[in-house]
Design a protein that fits this description.
single chain, about 140 residues, alpha+beta, 5-stranded antiparallel sheet, 4 helices
């Protein structure tokens, strides 16, 4: 009977946690959905606002790049461990992002610089279907979370 209660509690806790994956169709309007997805996970995991804001901005950059340069849907996966938030954004293009020379008048080309500034670590992993850009953000738990 005790095992059934423990299993029931585990199932109930799992049902309260949001799904850590999201697939977005190739549409720049979906970037908003990606930001909302990361915000929801940050809040559910009890991370501080600064880490959540950084993760949301970095996700927005990575998803936008997946749509524009990867020319495919974007697949997001988010996980957390003590003191860190880990986000992956995958697309169907195997070409890795490259840092561009900064042009002060340009409207784009700053994504990698932003990632390098805000992420604790980041990288690119080759996958059979394309690539996954990943990043970690150092995070603290909110008091009372």
């Amino acid at each position: 009977m005790r095992a059934i209660r423990n299993l029931g509690a585990a199932v109930a806790e799992s049902a309260r946690r949001p799904d850590p994956t999201l697939v977005l169709s190739q549409d720049l309007g979906e970037v908003r959905r990606a930001r909302s997805f990361v915000r929801q996970h940050c809040n559910a995991m009890g991370f501080d606002a600064e880490a959540c804001d950084a993760a949301i901005l970095l996700t927005s950059e990575a998803v936008t790049n997946a749509f524009i340069h990867g020319r495919s849907e974007a697949r997001i996966r988010i996980t957390a461990a003590a003191g860190r938030l880990y986000v992956e954004v995958a697309d169907d293009n195997s070409r890795h992002p490259q840092r561009l020379d900064q042009d002060a008048d340009a409207l784009d080309g700053r994504g990698i610089a932003i990632v390098q500034h805000l992420a604790s670590r980041w990288g690119v992993r080759d996958d059979p279907y394309g690539k996954t850009v990943w990043f970690e953000v150092a995070a603290r738990s909110r008091p009372g979370a």
